[in-house]
Write a structure and sequence with these properties.
By secondary structure, the chain is mostly helical. It has five helices and two strands, in the order H-H-H-E-E-H-H. Helix 1 packs antiparallel against helix 2 and helix 1 runs parallel beside helix 3.
């Protein structure tokens, strides 16, 4: 029975990520921007973050680490983190504004989150690099499991 609990917690993080993205998709700055949507999304993100710590802790404590957790846990992390940044750089979180006056005015777009599309590209490139390295190292028979620095990165 204990063997499946950490895996169920990991899988539940994917469900929490889906709920988080649904809430973010309904939020729109200066539109249908009910602050309750962002508050609920934040609570769900924190629950997903805590579940990330809990599943690994329980798997190590009960000595039930396995291939499923080594694959799905970082996958769920990537979905949650990259998906968050994609949403935060997207259309629901922008502030259209005009700079300048008269014929020198032009439209600019700023995000309320401070996340620019180039940041998403850098994060995506980093994640693809780490995933590629993980595949190369694990194909050589070495373990490339999660470390605390990675857990810290997911939460920040």
């Amino acid at each position: 029975m204990f063997r499946h609990v950490p895996n169920l917690i990991t899988a539940s993080r994917l469900v929490l990520a889906a709920a988080f993205f649904v809430l973010l998709s309904y939020y729109q700055y200066e539109g249908r921007g009910d602050p309750l949507l962002l508050t609920s999304a934040c609570v769900i993100y924190i629950a997903a973050l805590l579940s990330d710590f809990l599943d690994g802790h329980l798997a190590r404590k009960w000595h039930v680490e396995g291939a499923f957790g080594r694959v799905v846990d970082p996958f769920a992390d990537k979905i949650l983190v990259l998906g968050s940044f994609i949403f935060f750089a997207g259309k629901n979180f922008i502030i259209p504004a005009t700079e300048g006056f008269g014929i020198h005015s032009h439209m600019v777009v700023r995000t309320i989150t401070g996340v620019a599309p180039w940041m998403v590209i850098v994060l995506l490139a980093r994640e693809l690099l780490v995933t590629s390295l993980r595949g190369i190292i694990e194909s050589g028979g070495q373990n490339f499991g999660a470390v605390w620095a990675g857990k810290f990165k997911m939460g920040s």
